[in-house]
Every structure is written in structure tokens, then in C-alpha cells.
Design goal:
Number of helices: 20
Distance between the termini: 61 Å
Mean pLDDT: 95
Shape: globular
Bound molecules: carboxymethyl coenzyme *A
Largest sheet: 3 strands, antiparallel
Radius of gyration: 23 Å
Oligomer: single chain
CATH architecture of the largest domain: Orthogonal Bundle
Strand content: 5-15%
CATH superfamily of the largest domain: Citrate Synthase, domain 1
Strand order of the largest sheet: 1-2-3
Low-confidence stretches: none
Length: 432
């Protein structure tokens, strides 16, 4: 494998060091290029730029490989659960029995949202977008727990274990409270004795005098869903968390920014958009032809939602797992969801269509996740909130890498300016 590279500009050559990752990924280090040559690397959207070295997740989009801390997603999905995978993603190793117990205890002890914070909810309209509420309320954690969120890496890393547990556990509680607030239902508070997913379902669906007891299939499906979202390398929201964190902003603030990034329909918001698409195909009695035809127009607003991925160009391994889980969960719960049949037909039609085949557009994780969430009783407008709950460990692990890196720099990309060249100011009365 090459160990050195160089860039030739006219007749001058600039040596560029080569960096090789543990899985053999190769990069040309351009950090010193500007100082040496005056040139910067241009890579709109960072599609071919490694913005960091990271030990958390390995992803090979061409081969459909996803591994957290070395463990294949297929093995984690089959044998682990969300909380254990969260520990793995954050701390780098599978927990021992004692570590798992302590981590679980920290999550349970930090699940509640205190009374003063509950009042924030009242400031939102009942029909506020749940992700807008989630990002604001999560940002407010920095105000409520300022001793854990000092915007000083050294200090914040000392209280990292507690802040991380709070973030994971409270984001889930806040998510359930948003649901109940919007429905005008009284909040249901977390129960210490319940496991993570069962507790979420309890806070979502219990009534004041009637506890919702999650069927094992439901809790298992939610565990799988959250686990499959736990981390995903340098996607839009995770890069946002790293970018915000690189300014020494605290964990809660950085995660709140990640939630904002996740809300967009090209990222986490896609699970909502997929469901809306499937529902309108159902309501119109269409076979999906209209959506496929519109998606082929090349317009960004008409894309086939749940299809395509910025890095997977073969298949999304999470989609494979979730597509199969969809069949199992619905069968176990005895649900016959017409949207599942529509999704399968749409998938088949798209996979036979040259537009999608030639562009390597396959179903992604969001294509089937909504059908599972619907089977759990989660309304469509809450889908992206569940994605955020699942993704919290990845954001936390990435923030920690940034905070703990002694050689880390503030994120500050360059640009190529393409605006007006220098011109002189014209007073208002003299403008044409
Ligand atoms: N429907 C129709 N055309 C598409 C789609 C789609 N879903 N996705 C990509 N294309 C086209 C795109 O217009 C481009 O066409 P052309 O070569 O003619 O200009 C070509 O395929 C290549 O696109 P790309 O460069 O691979 O796509 P990208 O990296 O810019 O975007 C994406 C990736 C995920 C934003 C995009 O595929 C998309 O918008 N998908 C629908 C939204 C979606 O499902 N998002 C969830 C992603 S998975 C969850 C997550 O991690 O966020």
C-alpha cells in the first residue's frame, strides 16, 4: 500500500502524507497543502473528505458493512440490546456484568425530567413539530445542569459518565413527554424498575390508573429499532455534533444541534416522509408509479423517500435487518398493515427500474423503520424523535472523541468564494 503521495501543480510537486486506517481505508493528508502551495482541497459537502480519525464506527458503503467498535451490526442486532450497544458505542468495549449493571442504574436514576423543566413544554404550541421541541428542550439541559455543561472540555469530561447517562435517559423521557403534551395527556413519569425500552413505552402509553405493559415482542422490536440507529459514522447530525463540540461547547448543546440536523427530511426526517408517501399511495389507490416517476425527475423535493444513501452504494445492512424484522414483528403482533405490502411493491418496482439501478439507489434504514414504529403505536410525527433517541449514543461517543483529543482543533472548513469581486459602496440615493 502506498505510504506517500504528492500533488503536482504546474511543475511544482507537493508531498502529501498518506494515512491508513485500521481497516485499510486510505487518505491523503492535505492539512499542510494550503500553507505549502496556497491551494485548498475542494469537496462540496465533504463527500470525499475524512473530517476526523475515529475509533467508533467502521462503515464500508460499497460492501454494505457497518461495525461498531469492530462488532458487525448483524451480530449486535441478533444478540445485543440497545442499552448494551449504547455502552459499547460510547465506551469502546462490551460491558462486563458489573459495568452493564452500573450503566443501567445510571440511566434509571437519571430518567426523570424535573418540574422546572416540565414548564418549558407549556411554552410550545400543541402542534409544534416534535423535533423542534426536542432540540430546544435538550438544549435546556445545559441550563438546568450547568455544573455538567461548563463549556470546558477538561471539566465536562470529568462529569462525562453522568452527563452521558442523563442525555440518553432524559432524551427518551422528553420524547415521551412531547407525545403526551401534544395529545393533551398528563405526563407519565419513568419507573425505576423498568428496563429502558419498556420504560419509554410506559411513559408513552400508560394511563394514570392503568399501566401499559409492553408485550415482549413490542419491547424487543423497539430495542432493535433503537440499536440499529445507535451510530452511523460521520453523517450530517453526527458531524454537526462534532463541529459544535469542537468549539468546546458542552455535550447537551452539541447534541441539541445534532437533533436539529437530524430533523431534515434528507436525514432523519426521511422516516416520516416515507410513511407519508406510503399513506398517500394507499389513500389514492395508486401502485406507486406516480412517486417513482416523480422521483426520476431529478428534483430534490420529489425523491423516493427511504431510497438511496450518501455512502451505501450496494445495500444498507440496517435496511436488510429491519426489512426482515418488519415481517416478524407484524406476524407476531398479528398486524396486517397494507403499507407493508405497498412498501414491498414499491421496492420491487424501483429495484427493476434502470434509474434506481444505475444510480445504486437501494432502500435505506428509513424505508421500513416507520412500519415497525406504526406497529408499536407510535404516531408518524414522532418517528424522527425515536431516531434521535436511538442515535444519542453515537452523538455522545463522537462528542467525547472530540473533547478528549489533545490535538483536536476547532472545525473550520475553507471555501472557494464565488461572489462579487471588490466594489465601492454606493449611497442609497445614488443607487440605480
Ligand atoms: N430518489 C430519486 N433520486 C435519487 C434519490 C432518491 N431517493 N437519492 C438519490 N437520487 C439521485 C440523485 O438525484 C442523483 O441523481 P443524478 O446523478 O441524476 O444527479 C443520484 O441519485 C446520486 O445521488 P447521490 O449523490 O448518491 O445522493 P446524495 O448522496 O446526494 O444523497 C440521500 C443521499 C440519502 C440524501 C438521497 O439518496 C436522498 O435524498 N434519499 C431520500 C431521503 C432519504 O431516504 N434519506 C434517509 C437516508 S438514511 C438515514 C440517515 O442516515 O439519514
Amino acid at each position: 500500500m502506498a505510504t506517500n503521495a504528492s500533488l503536482k501543480i504546474d511543475d511544482k510537486e507537493y508531498p502529501l502524507p498518506v494515512i491508513v486506517g485500521t481497516e485499510g481505508e486510505k487518505a491523503v493528508d492535505t492539512r499542510a497543502l494550503r500553507t505549502a502551495s496556497g491551494y485548498v482541497a475542494f469537496d462540496q459537502g465533504y463527500g470525499n473528505t475524512a473530517s476526523c480519525e475515529s475509533q467508533i464506527t467502521y462503515l464500508d458503503g460499497d460492501s454494505g458493512i457497518l461495525r461498531h467498535r469492530g462488532y458487525p451490526i448483524e451480530q449486535l442486532a441478533a444478540q445485543s440490546d440497545y442499552v448494551e450497544t449504547a455502552y459499547l458505542v460510547i465506551y469502546g468495549e462490551l460491558p462486563s456484568a458489573t459495568q452493564r449493571k452500573e450503566f443501567g442504574l445510571r440511566l434509571r436514576q437519571n430518567a426523570a425530567v424535573e418540574t422546572q423543566m416540565q414548564r418549558i413544554f407549556e411554552g410550545f404550541p400543541k402542534d409544534a413539530p416534535p423535533m423542534a421541541m426536542l432540540s430546544s428542550i435538550v438544549a435546556s439541559l445545559a441550563a438546568h445542569y450547568p455544573h455538567l455543561a461548563t463549556n470546558n472540555f477538561e471539566h465536562d469530561l470529568k462529569s462525562f459518565d453522568l452527563a452521558a447517562a442523563m442525555a440518553i435517559s432524559k432524551i427518551r423521557t422528553i420524547g415521551a413527554m412531547i407525545y403526551r403534551y401534544q395529545k393533551g395527556l398528563p405526563y407519565i413519569f419513568p419507573k425505576q424498575e423498568l428496563p429502558f425500552c419498556e420504560n419509554f413505552l410506559h411513559m408513552m402509553f400508560s394511563e394514570p390508573y392503568q399501566d401499559y405493559v409492553a408485550a415482549p415482542e413490542i419491547a424487543k422490536a423497539l430495542n432493535l429499532l433503537l440499536l440499529l440507529h445507535a451510530d452511523h459514522e460521520q453523517n450530517c447530525s453526527t458531524s454537526t455534533v462534532r463541529m459544535v463540540g469542537s468549539s468546546a461547547a458542552n455535550l447537551f448543546t452539541s447534541i441539541s444541534a445534532g437533533i436539529c440536523a437530524l430533523s431534515g427530511p434528507l436525514h432523519g426526517g426521511a422516516n416520516t416522509a416515507v410513511m407519508q408517501m406510503l399513506q398517500s399511495i394507499h389513500d389514492e389507490g395508486d401502485d406507486g408509479t406516480r412517486f417513482i416517476a416523480a422521483a426520476k425527475s431529478g428534483s430534490k423535493t420529489n425523491r423516493l423517500m427511504g431510497f438511496g444513501h450518501a455512502v451505501y452504494k450496494n445495500f444498507d445492512p440496517r435496511a436488510k435487518i429491519i426489512g426482515k424484522a418488519c415481517d416478524d414483528v407484524l406476524a407476531k403482533l398479528g398486524i396486517n398493515d397494507p403499507l407493508l405490502a405497498i412498501a414491498k411493491n414499491l421496492e420491487q418496482a424501483a429495484l427493476k427500474d434502470d434509474y434506481f439501478v444505475s444510480r445504486k439507489l437501494y432502500p435505506n434504514v428509513d424505508f421500513y423503520s416507520g412500519i415497525i414504529m406504526r406497529a408499536l403505536g407510535v404516531p408518524v410525527n414522532m418517528f424522527t424523535v425515536l431516531f434521535a433517541i436511538g442515535r444519542a449514543p453515537g452523538w455522545i461517543a463522537n462528542w467525547r472523541e472530540v473533547a478528549a483529543n489533545p490535538k483536536g482543533r476547532i472545525y473550520r472548513p475553507r471555501q472557494i468564494y464565488s461572489g462579487a469581486v471588490k466594489r465601492d459602496y454606493v449611497p442609497i440615493g445614488q443607487r440605480g
